[in-house]
Amino acid sequence: MIRRMLPQDIDEVMELEQETMSHPWCGDDIKSLAFDQGKIAFVSTDGEKINGYVGASYVLDEAEIGNICVAPEARRKGVASSLLSRLSSELRDRGVTKIFLEVEDTNYGAISLYEKTGFERFSERKDYYGSGRNALLYRAKTHPQEEQQGREKADAAQEIRRIAAEMQAHASAGLTYTKNDFDRDRFREMRDLAAELLTLEVEGLPKERAKDLFEKNDGYPTPKAETRAVIFNDNDELLMVKDYDGKWTVPGGWCERELTVKQNVVKEAMEEAGLIVEPVRLVAIHSHKMRNNPKSFFSCFKYLVLCEAKGGQFIANEETTESGWFPVDALPEDMNSHKINRDQIMLCLKARHEENWTVEYD
């Protein structure tokens, strides 16, 4: 079975690394795969223990595989190729288009594996591993050739969304500052045209709904603010609520105009989870577009705040239908990743266990 690497896998992965690699990674490198933003790892298990793992780091549309390791008894059984396939699929979903790796030129088994799984050699580094020990550089694309047309269509749709967003921003700024009635009419027309343009890209969005959306977000175009209350219990289980569309998330929402970030976190936790909480640490300020929903029309900053539950109990309400505590290795499949995703949850768990924490911000 192939699954995401979890914090509780660190010791076992380190042991596998020490047993099988001539130059094993240190503990901090392995730990970073389970906790750090921009890194991802998968493990293979035989039902009882981990028999292989692969780890990579990624930035924007490029990723680099740092290590792939398979126990001797599990080799030549498809474990390595399965790990690479799962990793490539996950990186593709995160917007990565190119994957790079390096391998010693005498590691014929690994070279054969990489070339069979779509990697192409493009360069060489002499004496990279020591005198006479050269590194071969390989790269692969996460999107096969037949997906090119679909990507071009998606790129065109994204461009339509971008143009509509810029038109709406200019129209809103114009309506805010103009003193001329004639110009005001022209800016309203521009705003309505932007709304109609958006309906060409968003399937099922009526023109009137788009126009109403833009009218309610008038004024000078600045980012919105959103808070998320991240609450763990003593067993590192996460408090989650099921929202109105049937997906699981953590309590949170738009910041009210007259409330501070802390006040808004407390309010949302009470309204959506029925809990009295105390905010104890700001973990991160993330760009919603960068981290959660690249297709989001409006810009938003997401405040991730660790909280301690002080009392209360869940009561069904207009926004959420139930709540529950979930281990981080058994989070619900039907999560609303636009509100919080697994990487952000793991970041908050890491912050919970570090004495000194530096706020991460985009």
Quick summary:
Helix content is 37%, strand content 30%. The protein has helices spanning 10-20, 27-35, 79-93, 108-116, 148-177, 181-201, 207-216, 261-273, 288-291, 342-352, and strands at residues 2-4, 39-45, 50-59, 62-70, 98-104, 120-130, 133-141, 224-231, 238-243, 248-249, 252-254, 275-287, 300-312, 320-326, 360-361.
Quick tags:
single chain, 362 residues, alpha+beta, Aminopeptidase, Nucleoside Triphosphate Pyrophosphohydrolase, 3 domains, five-stranded mixed beta sheet, 10 helices, 37% helix, 30% strand, globular
Structural account:
The two termini are 35 Å apart. A hairpin with a 2-residue loop joins strand 3 and strand 4. The model has no long low-confidence stretch (mean pLDDT 86). The protein has helices at 10-20, 27-35, 79-93, 108-116, 148-177, 181-201, 207-216, 261-273, 288-291, 342-352, and strands at 2-4, 39-45, 50-59, 62-70, 98-104, 120-130, 133-141, 224-231, 238-243, 248-249, 252-254, 275-287, 300-312, 320-326, 360-361. The longest helix has 30 residues, at 148-177. It has ten helices and 15 strands. With 362 residues, the protein is of the alpha+beta class. It folds into three domains: 2-142, Aminopeptidase (3-Layer(aba) Sandwich), CATH 3.40.630.30; 147-216; 224-361, Alpha-Beta Complex (Nucleoside Triphosphate Pyrophosphohydrolase), CATH 3.90.79. A seven-stranded mixed beta sheet has the order 1-2-3-4-5-7-6, with helices on both faces. Strands 11-8-13-12-15 form a five-stranded mixed beta sheet, sandwiched between helices.
